[in-house]
Amino acid sequence: MPKAKGKNRRQKYSYNLNRKRLYRSARRRAAPRIACSHIRHAWDPTKSVAQNLADMGLAGDPNKAVPIPKKKLLGMEVESDGQEQGKKIVRKPYVVNEMEYEASLPEKKSNTLSRDLIDYVKYMIQNHGENYKEMARDEKNYYQDTPKQIKRKINVYKNFYPEEYKDFIASLKQEKMDMQ
Question: Could you tell me which residues come within 8 angstroms of residue 127 by beta carbon, excluding any fewer than 6 positions away?
C-alpha cells in the first residue's frame, strides 16, 4: 500500500516564533492540580508552589523539611541544642488543622458482601450445618468450592454480619426444636 503524500517531508523550522514567551505563558497559566479542598481554597496563584506550601505549614520536599543530622548518620547520637534552625512563619495554620481533623475522623466501613454470597452461605448452613465436606458435594455448589473455601466464605460472613449470623443460627435451633 503506498504511503500518504507528505508524511515523510521534513518539518520547516519557524524562525518567527518566540518559543520562550510561549513556554512562559503556558507555564504561568497552568495551575497545579490540587486534590485537597482545604489547600485549593487557601492557594494563592500569584505565589510559587514552595511559597504557598510554606505559608500553609506544609512541606514540598520531606527530605528538606526534616533533615537527618550528619552526626546521626555517622552513628554518634548527640543531643540537639533545642534551637530550631530558621523557624518559618505559618500564615495559614487553619489548612493543617482542618486536614488533621479530617484525618482523625473514623473511616466508614463501606465494603459489604454480595447478596448471592449471603444466600449461598445461609443455604449451606441451613441444609448441612457444620459439615463442610457435605457442602462441597452439594448441587448448589456451582463454583465447585472445596470444603476449606466454603468454610472461609462462612467465616467471612460471620465477621461481616455477626448479629445477623447469631439470629440466623438461633432461628435454625428454634426450627429444630419445633420439629421435635
Answer: 138
